[in-house]
Amino acid sequence: MYNGMAKVNSVAVLQPGIIDMEIAAPEAAMVAQAGQFVNVYLNDKSRLLPRPISICRINRKNGTLRLVFRIAGEGTRQMAAFKPGDEIKIMGPLGNGFIDTYIKNAV
Questions:
Q1: Are 82 and 8 in contact (CB under 8 A)?
Q2: I need a surface site. Which of 8, 94, 103, 104 has the fewest CB within 10 A?
Q3: Residues sharing a CB contact under 8 Å with residue 87, sequence separation 6 or more, in sequence order
Q4: HEC per residue, the chain
Q5: What is the pLDDT of residues 9-54, one digit of tens each?
Q6: In DSSP terms, which residues pair with 6 in a beta bridge?
Q7: pLDDT 10s digits, 79-91
């Protein structure tokens, strides 16, 4: 598990309220598995709890993770305001992942 800083590579709006974010976190990307998530900490120190965000895509070669999330409250609203180049604190990957070699057909 990695507990440290990651760099925001890109932030895009997929639909109103749905955000696609790619972060550079080589240490986390090397050990992440399908079905896991990362905790994303906000810069706002009044919000102590991190936001758990599912990992959408793992790119081990580039050392990146793709996070897609819905703006559901003030915490995810602040996350959506991150810009490329921002440094953010993350912890993860967390949760019980699974090895995707057993998946034959996915919807």
A1: yes
A2: 104
A3: 5, 6, 7, 8
A4: CEEEEEEEEEEEEEECCEEEEEEECHHHHHHCCECCEEEECCCCCCCCCCEEEEEEEEECCCCEEEEEEECCCHHHHHHHCCCCCCEEEEEEEECCCECHHHCCCCC
A5: 999 999 999 999 999 999 999 999 989 999 999 988 777 889 999 9
A6: 88
A7: 999 999 999 999 9
Q: Minimal CA–CA distance to 80: which of 17, 5, 28, 4?
A: 17
